[in-house]
Write the structure tokens for this entry.
Amino acid sequence: MAIEIVTIPCLADNYAFLLNDSETGVTALVDAPEETPILKVLAERGWSLDMVLLTHHHFDHVDGLGGILTEHRATVVGAKADAHRLPPLDIALSEGDELQIGDAAATVIDVSGHTVGHIAFHIPQAQAVFTADSLMALGCGRLFEGDAAIAWESLQKLMALPKDTIVYSGHEYTMANGRFALTIEPGNPDLVTRVKKIEQARRQGQPTVPSSLSEELATNPFLRGHMTEVQESVGLKGADAGAVFARVRQAKDTF
């Protein structure tokens, strides 16, 4: 099975993703921040869009949908729990439900926290998870609706995925996230090396998304509340990892 995934920069710092199953020709879009760049890639590749997968209701993930649907008669998929705030859905899904994208199965994961009803899509055959604003490169989304306990539960679900999973998150926030991460774990050599690579990539105009789950587990302070250095950095040595996560999130909010 060959699934090609194309990362599309949108707006100031958003990403959308196109998935194409070469065996069946089925093409899916994850999130629709802006119509023009997405339609441009579809036209360049000669792909017809079959479905749009929405992760959550924020405008910078859905506002391009109307223009896209005028060009492509795609099925719109989103969270049942968030259907009242999303554009009209053709398919409403809950955690554990599966969606076929060509020959590949995408499993829905409830990753509430940034918003309540936020979902991620895990596609094992592509070694990919689309997390939008839940787990991000070197970060996690600000908790606008859910609390820290809900967000930590969501992150634990993502942390349990196979370590070689590639994380497709929704924004180019990685350099700012890296600067914050270094205040939490300045002695983490993997983090220091990663931040240097990120700085180089951004100087060259290259995206830092996607990232690997193994990278996130080794460097993302929001996933590392079990580490003594992280606990000590936020004054919670020996505390539960969930409590440490809450303190790290609080520190990032005022960084």
